[in-house]
Give the backbone structure.
Amino acid sequence: MKERYSRQILLREIGEEGQKKLLESKIAIIGVGALGSVVANNLVRAGVGRILIVDRDFVEINNLQRQMLFDEDDIGVPKAIAAAEKLRRVNSDEEIAVVVKDLNHTNAEKIMRGMDLILDGTDNMQTRFLINDVCVKNEITWIYAGAVGTHGMTMTIIPGTTPCLRCFLPDVPEPGSLPTCDTVGVLNTIPGIIASIESTEATKILLGKKTTTKAESNLIVYDAWSSTFENMTIMRDKGCRCCVKHKFDLLNVEKKEIITSLCGRNAIQITPAGAKKISLDDLALKLERLGDVRYNDFILIFKTEREEISIFKDGRAIIKGTDDEKIAKSLYARYIGV
Amino acid sequence: MKITLPDGGIKEIKIGNRDMPIDNLLKELDINPVGVIVVKNDKIVTEDETVRNEDEIRIIMIINGG
Ligand SMILES: [Zn+2]
Protein backbone atom coordinates (compact mmCIF):
# COMPACT_ATOMS: atom_id res chain seq x y z
CA MET A 1 0.00 0.00 0.00
CA LYS A 2 2.65 2.46 1.10
CA GLU A 3 4.79 1.96 -1.98
CA ARG A 4 1.93 2.44 -4.44
CA TYR A 5 0.91 5.77 -2.93
CA SER A 6 4.32 6.85 -1.65
CA ARG A 7 4.57 9.93 -3.90
CA GLN A 8 1.38 11.42 -2.60
CA ILE A 9 1.89 10.33 0.99
CA LEU A 10 5.05 12.43 0.74
CA LEU A 11 2.89 15.42 -0.07
CA ARG A 12 2.35 17.62 2.94
CA GLU A 13 -1.25 18.15 1.81
CA ILE A 14 -2.03 14.42 1.90
CA GLY A 15 0.29 12.40 4.12
CA GLU A 16 -0.58 9.01 5.61
CA GLU A 17 -3.70 10.26 7.25
CA GLY A 18 -4.99 11.78 4.01
CA GLN A 19 -4.24 8.60 2.10
CA LYS A 20 -6.27 6.65 4.63
CA LYS A 21 -9.18 9.01 4.07
CA LEU A 22 -8.98 8.49 0.30
CA LEU A 23 -8.88 4.71 0.71
CA GLU A 24 -11.99 4.85 2.87
CA SER A 25 -13.95 7.06 0.46
CA LYS A 26 -16.88 6.03 -1.65
CA ILE A 27 -17.74 7.94 -4.80
CA ALA A 28 -19.90 7.62 -7.90
CA ILE A 29 -18.94 8.85 -11.35
CA ILE A 30 -22.01 9.46 -13.48
CA GLY A 31 -21.05 9.13 -17.13
CA VAL A 32 -17.71 7.74 -18.20
CA GLY A 33 -17.11 9.54 -21.49
CA ALA A 34 -14.38 12.12 -21.96
CA LEU A 35 -14.71 13.77 -18.53
CA GLY A 36 -15.60 10.63 -16.59
CA SER A 37 -12.67 8.64 -18.06
CA VAL A 38 -10.16 11.16 -16.80
CA VAL A 39 -11.82 11.54 -13.41
CA ALA A 40 -11.99 7.76 -12.93
CA ASN A 41 -8.39 7.31 -14.03
CA ASN A 42 -7.13 10.06 -11.69
CA LEU A 43 -9.07 8.90 -8.65
CA VAL A 44 -8.46 5.17 -9.07
CA ARG A 45 -4.72 5.86 -9.27
CA ALA A 46 -4.96 8.15 -6.23
CA GLY A 47 -6.46 5.30 -4.22
CA VAL A 48 -10.06 6.34 -3.71
CA GLY A 49 -11.25 3.09 -2.18
CA ARG A 50 -14.67 2.47 -3.66
CA ILE A 51 -15.80 3.76 -7.03
CA LEU A 52 -19.12 3.24 -8.77
CA ILE A 53 -19.24 3.96 -12.49
CA VAL A 54 -22.63 4.63 -14.07
CA ASP A 55 -22.99 4.92 -17.84
CA ARG A 56 -25.72 4.22 -20.39
CA ASP A 57 -23.60 4.14 -23.53
CA PHE A 58 -21.25 1.83 -25.37
CA VAL A 59 -17.90 2.69 -26.95
CA GLU A 60 -17.93 3.99 -30.54
CA ILE A 61 -15.00 4.80 -32.79
CA ASN A 62 -15.62 8.57 -32.61
CA ASN A 63 -15.09 8.39 -28.81
CA LEU A 64 -11.45 7.35 -29.06
CA GLN A 65 -10.25 10.86 -29.97
CA ARG A 66 -10.80 12.00 -26.35
CA GLN A 67 -12.12 9.22 -24.09
CA MET A 68 -8.77 8.16 -22.71
CA LEU A 69 -9.70 4.86 -21.05
CA PHE A 70 -10.80 3.14 -24.26
CA ASP A 71 -9.08 1.57 -27.24
CA GLU A 72 -10.19 -0.09 -30.48
CA ASP A 73 -10.86 -3.43 -28.76
CA ASP A 74 -13.55 -1.76 -26.64
CA ILE A 75 -15.79 -0.71 -29.54
CA GLY A 76 -19.29 -2.02 -28.94
CA VAL A 77 -18.68 -2.71 -25.24
CA PRO A 78 -20.65 -0.70 -22.63
CA LYS A 79 -18.41 2.13 -21.46
CA ALA A 80 -18.82 1.35 -17.75
CA ILE A 81 -17.69 -2.26 -18.32
CA ALA A 82 -14.73 -1.33 -20.53
CA ALA A 83 -13.66 1.40 -18.11
CA ALA A 84 -13.88 -0.86 -15.05
CA GLU A 85 -11.84 -3.55 -16.77
CA LYS A 86 -9.05 -1.12 -17.54
CA LEU A 87 -9.17 0.49 -14.10
CA ARG A 88 -8.93 -2.87 -12.34
CA ARG A 89 -5.68 -3.44 -14.20
CA VAL A 90 -4.44 -0.06 -13.00
CA ASN A 91 -5.30 -0.70 -9.37
CA SER A 92 -6.54 -4.12 -8.33
CA ASP A 93 -6.78 -3.13 -4.65
CA GLU A 94 -9.88 -1.09 -5.22
CA GLU A 95 -13.52 -1.89 -5.33
CA ILE A 96 -14.85 -0.81 -8.71
CA ALA A 97 -18.54 -1.39 -9.38
CA VAL A 98 -20.55 -0.60 -12.51
CA VAL A 99 -24.12 0.19 -13.45
CA VAL A 100 -24.94 -0.01 -17.17
CA LYS A 101 -28.10 2.06 -17.06
CA ASP A 102 -29.49 5.44 -17.86
CA LEU A 103 -29.60 7.43 -14.62
CA ASN A 104 -33.22 8.51 -14.28
CA HIS A 105 -35.85 9.36 -11.66
CA THR A 106 -36.61 5.69 -11.00
CA ASN A 107 -33.07 4.70 -10.00
CA ALA A 108 -31.05 7.85 -9.23
CA GLU A 109 -31.61 8.02 -5.47
CA LYS A 110 -30.92 4.33 -5.00
CA ILE A 111 -27.69 4.57 -7.00
CA MET A 112 -26.38 7.74 -5.37
CA ARG A 113 -27.45 7.40 -1.74
CA GLY A 114 -24.64 6.71 0.73
CA MET A 115 -21.93 8.15 -1.52
CA ASP A 116 -19.39 10.61 -0.12
CA LEU A 117 -19.26 12.47 -3.41
CA ILE A 118 -20.81 12.44 -6.88
CA LEU A 119 -18.78 13.40 -9.94
CA ASP A 120 -20.39 14.64 -13.10
CA GLY A 121 -19.26 13.05 -16.34
CA THR A 122 -22.62 13.32 -18.09
CA ASP A 123 -23.28 14.87 -21.48
CA ASN A 124 -26.64 16.52 -20.90
CA MET A 125 -28.33 19.04 -18.60
CA GLN A 126 -31.38 16.89 -17.86
CA THR A 127 -29.24 14.35 -15.98
CA ARG A 128 -27.31 17.11 -14.21
CA PHE A 129 -30.54 18.66 -12.88
CA LEU A 130 -31.55 15.19 -11.69
CA ILE A 131 -28.18 14.78 -9.93
CA ASN A 132 -28.67 18.24 -8.39
CA ASP A 133 -32.12 17.24 -7.07
CA VAL A 134 -30.87 13.97 -5.59
CA CYS A 135 -27.80 15.59 -4.04
CA VAL A 136 -29.63 18.55 -2.50
CA LYS A 137 -32.38 16.27 -1.17
CA ASN A 138 -29.93 13.75 0.32
CA GLU A 139 -27.18 16.27 1.20
CA ILE A 140 -24.48 14.75 -0.98
CA THR A 141 -21.73 16.96 -2.38
CA TRP A 142 -21.37 16.88 -6.16
CA ILE A 143 -19.16 18.49 -8.76
CA TYR A 144 -20.60 19.77 -12.01
CA ALA A 145 -18.32 19.74 -15.05
CA GLY A 146 -18.86 20.36 -18.74
CA ALA A 147 -16.67 20.57 -21.84
CA VAL A 148 -17.49 21.45 -25.43
CA GLY A 149 -15.76 23.16 -28.35
CA THR A 150 -12.67 24.88 -26.98
CA HIS A 151 -13.94 25.61 -23.48
CA GLY A 152 -15.21 24.06 -20.29
CA MET A 153 -16.44 24.81 -16.78
CA THR A 154 -16.74 23.20 -13.37
CA MET A 155 -18.29 24.02 -10.00
CA THR A 156 -18.58 22.31 -6.64
CA ILE A 157 -21.99 22.11 -5.01
CA ILE A 158 -22.11 21.43 -1.26
CA PRO A 159 -25.79 21.19 -0.26
CA GLY A 160 -26.67 23.18 2.83
CA THR A 161 -23.65 25.41 2.30
CA THR A 162 -23.07 26.59 -1.27
CA PRO A 163 -25.59 27.52 -3.97
CA CYS A 164 -26.83 24.73 -6.23
CA LEU A 165 -27.14 24.35 -9.99
CA ARG A 166 -30.63 25.81 -10.01
CA CYS A 167 -29.49 28.93 -8.18
CA PHE A 168 -28.01 30.21 -11.43
CA LEU A 169 -29.93 28.08 -13.95
CA PRO A 170 -33.55 28.23 -12.81
CA ASP A 171 -34.92 26.23 -15.76
CA VAL A 172 -33.79 22.97 -17.34
CA PRO A 173 -32.62 23.63 -20.92
CA GLU A 174 -34.54 21.71 -23.56
CA PRO A 175 -32.66 18.86 -25.22
CA GLY A 176 -31.08 20.22 -28.38
CA SER A 177 -31.01 23.84 -27.21
CA LEU A 178 -27.32 23.83 -26.25
CA PRO A 179 -24.24 22.97 -28.30
CA THR A 180 -23.00 19.39 -27.75
CA CYS A 181 -19.78 17.59 -28.67
CA ASP A 182 -21.79 15.85 -31.39
CA THR A 183 -22.93 19.10 -32.96
CA VAL A 184 -20.00 21.53 -32.57
CA GLY A 185 -17.11 19.18 -31.78
CA VAL A 186 -14.61 19.30 -28.95
CA LEU A 187 -10.88 19.83 -28.71
CA ASN A 188 -9.53 16.68 -27.10
CA THR A 189 -7.51 18.44 -24.40
CA ILE A 190 -10.50 20.32 -22.96
CA PRO A 191 -12.26 17.44 -21.19
CA GLY A 192 -8.87 16.38 -19.77
CA ILE A 193 -8.17 19.82 -18.33
CA ILE A 194 -11.64 20.30 -16.88
CA ALA A 195 -11.82 16.73 -15.53
CA SER A 196 -8.42 17.16 -13.90
CA ILE A 197 -9.66 20.26 -12.08
CA GLU A 198 -12.77 18.29 -11.14
CA SER A 199 -10.59 15.43 -9.79
CA THR A 200 -8.45 17.89 -7.83
CA GLU A 201 -11.52 19.45 -6.23
CA ALA A 202 -12.78 15.94 -5.49
CA THR A 203 -9.51 15.03 -3.78
CA LYS A 204 -9.68 18.15 -1.62
CA ILE A 205 -13.25 17.40 -0.61
CA LEU A 206 -12.47 13.77 0.25
CA LEU A 207 -9.49 14.89 2.31
CA GLY A 208 -11.74 17.29 4.17
CA LYS A 209 -9.61 20.22 3.00
CA LYS A 210 -12.39 22.00 1.25
CA THR A 211 -14.61 23.21 3.97
CA THR A 212 -16.52 26.36 3.43
CA THR A 213 -19.24 28.07 5.37
CA LYS A 214 -19.72 30.67 2.67
CA ALA A 215 -23.03 30.75 0.86
CA GLU A 216 -21.27 31.22 -2.42
CA SER A 217 -19.40 29.08 -4.86
CA ASN A 218 -17.07 29.55 -7.76
CA LEU A 219 -17.69 28.58 -11.32
CA ILE A 220 -14.33 27.94 -12.92
CA VAL A 221 -14.39 28.69 -16.63
CA TYR A 222 -11.52 27.78 -18.96
CA ASP A 223 -11.22 28.94 -22.54
CA ALA A 224 -8.41 27.28 -24.47
CA TRP A 225 -8.51 29.64 -27.45
CA SER A 226 -8.10 32.79 -25.40
CA SER A 227 -5.96 30.92 -22.82
CA THR A 228 -8.00 32.26 -19.91
CA PHE A 229 -9.09 30.81 -16.61
CA GLU A 230 -11.81 32.64 -14.76
CA ASN A 231 -13.27 32.19 -11.35
CA MET A 232 -16.79 33.58 -11.18
CA THR A 233 -18.70 33.96 -7.93
CA ILE A 234 -22.19 32.52 -7.71
CA MET A 235 -24.56 33.53 -4.93
CA ARG A 236 -27.54 31.58 -3.65
CA ASP A 237 -30.81 32.47 -5.33
CA LYS A 238 -33.08 33.28 -2.38
CA GLY A 239 -36.02 31.86 -4.32
CA CYS A 240 -34.24 28.73 -5.63
CA ARG A 241 -36.80 25.99 -6.35
CA CYS A 242 -34.36 23.27 -5.41
CA CYS A 243 -32.11 24.28 -2.52
CA VAL A 244 -34.44 26.85 -0.92
CA LYS A 245 -37.96 25.61 -1.64
CA HIS A 246 -37.01 21.93 -1.75
CA LYS A 247 -39.06 21.20 -4.83
CA PHE A 248 -37.38 18.31 -6.61
CA ASP A 249 -39.03 18.48 -10.02
CA LEU A 250 -36.81 15.91 -11.69
CA LEU A 251 -37.63 13.31 -9.05
CA ASN A 252 -41.35 13.92 -8.97
CA VAL A 253 -42.22 12.54 -12.35
CA GLU A 254 -44.76 9.94 -13.26
CA LYS A 255 -43.16 6.54 -13.44
CA LYS A 256 -43.67 5.49 -17.02
CA GLU A 257 -41.61 4.66 -20.04
CA ILE A 258 -38.85 7.22 -20.50
CA ILE A 259 -38.03 8.58 -23.92
CA THR A 260 -34.91 10.71 -24.23
CA SER A 261 -33.68 12.53 -27.27
CA LEU A 262 -29.89 12.16 -27.50
CA CYS A 263 -29.31 15.54 -28.97
CA GLY A 264 -26.94 16.06 -31.82
CA ARG A 265 -26.80 12.33 -32.42
CA ASN A 266 -30.02 11.91 -34.36
CA ALA A 267 -30.98 9.22 -31.88
CA ILE A 268 -33.70 8.42 -29.36
CA GLN A 269 -33.32 6.35 -26.22
CA ILE A 270 -36.24 4.34 -24.89
CA THR A 271 -36.21 2.97 -21.34
CA PRO A 272 -39.21 0.71 -20.67
CA ALA A 273 -41.31 1.38 -17.56
CA GLY A 274 -40.80 -1.93 -15.77
CA ALA A 275 -37.48 -3.78 -15.68
CA LYS A 276 -37.24 -6.25 -18.52
CA LYS A 277 -34.90 -9.15 -18.94
CA ILE A 278 -34.16 -9.71 -22.57
CA SER A 279 -32.33 -12.75 -23.87
CA LEU A 280 -29.99 -11.33 -26.47
CA ASP A 281 -29.53 -14.82 -27.96
CA ASP A 282 -33.25 -15.16 -28.63
CA LEU A 283 -33.51 -11.63 -29.93
CA ALA A 284 -30.56 -12.22 -32.27
CA LEU A 285 -32.29 -15.27 -33.75
CA LYS A 286 -35.39 -13.20 -34.36
CA LEU A 287 -33.63 -10.20 -35.87
CA GLU A 288 -31.02 -12.00 -37.98
CA ARG A 289 -33.61 -12.53 -40.67
CA LEU A 290 -34.38 -8.83 -40.84
CA GLY A 291 -30.96 -7.21 -40.88
CA ASP A 292 -27.39 -7.28 -39.69
CA VAL A 293 -26.96 -8.39 -36.04
CA ARG A 294 -23.86 -8.15 -33.85
CA TYR A 295 -23.93 -8.85 -30.14
CA ASN A 296 -21.88 -9.54 -27.02
CA ASP A 297 -22.77 -10.31 -23.40
CA PHE A 298 -24.19 -6.84 -22.79
CA ILE A 299 -25.58 -5.38 -25.95
CA LEU A 300 -27.05 -6.27 -29.32
CA ILE A 301 -26.65 -3.96 -32.30
CA PHE A 302 -29.15 -4.44 -35.07
CA LYS A 303 -28.73 -2.64 -38.40
CA THR A 304 -31.08 -2.28 -41.31
CA GLU A 305 -30.57 -0.02 -44.29
CA ARG A 306 -32.17 2.94 -42.57
CA GLU A 307 -31.78 2.48 -38.84
CA GLU A 308 -29.45 1.13 -36.19
CA ILE A 309 -30.86 -0.09 -32.88
CA SER A 310 -28.71 -0.93 -29.87
CA ILE A 311 -30.51 -3.04 -27.27
CA PHE A 312 -29.34 -3.64 -23.72
CA LYS A 313 -30.35 -6.64 -21.61
CA ASP A 314 -32.69 -4.58 -19.42
CA GLY A 315 -34.78 -3.61 -22.44
CA ARG A 316 -33.31 -0.15 -22.91
CA ALA A 317 -32.68 0.72 -26.55
CA ILE A 318 -30.93 3.49 -28.45
CA ILE A 319 -32.46 4.04 -31.86
CA LYS A 320 -30.23 5.85 -34.33
CA GLY A 321 -31.34 7.42 -37.56
CA THR A 322 -34.33 9.36 -36.24
CA ASP A 323 -35.11 12.16 -33.82
CA ASP A 324 -38.82 11.51 -33.99
CA GLU A 325 -40.15 9.89 -30.80
CA LYS A 326 -43.09 8.30 -32.56
CA ILE A 327 -40.94 6.62 -35.19
CA ALA A 328 -38.55 5.43 -32.48
CA LYS A 329 -41.42 3.99 -30.43
CA SER A 330 -42.85 2.14 -33.40
CA LEU A 331 -39.41 0.72 -34.28
CA TYR A 332 -39.04 -0.41 -30.67
CA ALA A 333 -42.42 -2.10 -30.79
CA ARG A 334 -41.67 -3.72 -34.15
CA TYR A 335 -38.24 -5.14 -33.38
CA ILE A 336 -38.14 -5.60 -29.60
CA GLY A 337 -41.77 -5.69 -28.63
CA VAL A 338 -43.64 -3.81 -25.92
CA MET B 1 -23.67 49.39 -21.76
CA LYS B 2 -21.06 46.99 -23.11
CA ILE B 3 -22.34 43.46 -23.65
CA THR B 4 -20.23 40.44 -24.54
CA LEU B 5 -22.39 37.86 -26.30
CA PRO B 6 -22.12 34.04 -25.98
CA ASP B 7 -20.21 33.83 -29.30
CA GLY B 8 -17.64 36.40 -28.10
CA GLY B 9 -19.14 39.25 -30.14
CA ILE B 10 -19.44 42.66 -28.46
CA LYS B 11 -22.49 44.89 -28.53
CA GLU B 12 -22.88 48.42 -27.18
CA ILE B 13 -26.40 49.51 -26.26
CA LYS B 14 -28.00 52.44 -24.42
CA ILE B 15 -31.07 51.85 -22.26
CA GLY B 16 -31.99 55.32 -21.03
CA ASN B 17 -31.71 56.27 -17.39
CA ARG B 18 -33.83 53.58 -15.84
CA ASP B 19 -32.77 50.19 -14.48
CA MET B 20 -33.66 47.35 -16.80
CA PRO B 21 -34.48 43.82 -15.61
CA ILE B 22 -32.13 41.23 -17.06
CA ASP B 23 -34.92 39.17 -18.61
CA ASN B 24 -35.96 42.27 -20.58
CA LEU B 25 -32.41 42.81 -21.72
CA LEU B 26 -32.21 39.21 -22.95
CA LYS B 27 -35.51 39.65 -24.78
CA GLU B 28 -34.17 42.76 -26.46
CA LEU B 29 -31.06 40.88 -27.53
CA ASP B 30 -33.24 38.01 -28.77
CA ILE B 31 -31.50 35.50 -26.49
CA ASN B 32 -33.38 32.53 -24.98
CA PRO B 33 -32.77 32.88 -21.22
CA VAL B 34 -32.77 29.13 -20.56
CA GLY B 35 -29.24 27.80 -20.18
CA VAL B 36 -27.74 31.27 -20.15
CA ILE B 37 -25.53 32.72 -17.42
CA VAL B 38 -25.44 36.50 -17.04
CA VAL B 39 -22.32 38.06 -15.58
CA LYS B 40 -22.69 41.64 -14.35
CA ASN B 41 -19.46 43.40 -13.48
CA ASP B 42 -17.70 40.03 -12.98
CA LYS B 43 -20.42 38.59 -10.76
CA ILE B 44 -23.00 36.02 -11.84
CA VAL B 45 -26.49 37.39 -11.28
CA THR B 46 -30.03 36.01 -11.44
CA GLU B 47 -32.53 37.17 -14.02
CA ASP B 48 -34.59 39.28 -11.64
CA GLU B 49 -31.61 41.57 -11.14
CA THR B 50 -31.45 44.83 -13.08
CA VAL B 51 -28.78 46.48 -15.19
CA ARG B 52 -27.93 50.09 -16.03
CA ASN B 53 -25.85 51.87 -18.66
CA GLU B 54 -22.59 51.86 -16.73
CA ASP B 55 -22.66 48.07 -16.14
CA GLU B 56 -20.50 45.67 -18.04
CA ILE B 57 -22.44 42.56 -19.03
CA ARG B 58 -21.29 39.22 -20.29
CA ILE B 59 -23.57 36.48 -21.42
CA ILE B 60 -22.27 32.93 -21.45
CA MET B 61 -23.92 29.58 -22.07
CA ILE B 62 -23.81 26.73 -19.61
CA ILE B 63 -21.63 23.93 -20.94
CA ASN B 64 -23.41 20.73 -21.71
CA GLY B 65 -20.85 18.34 -23.19
CA GLY B 66 -18.95 15.70 -21.38
ZN1 LIG C 1 -30.25 26.44 -5.39
Remarks:
- Residues A 163-164, 166-167, 237, 240, 242-243 surround zinc ion (CB under 6 Å).
- The first strand of chain B starts at residue 2 and ends at 4.
- Chain B touches chain A at residues 32-35, 37, 39, 42-44, 46-47, 60-66 (CB under 8 Å).
- The first helix of chain B runs from residue 22 to 28.
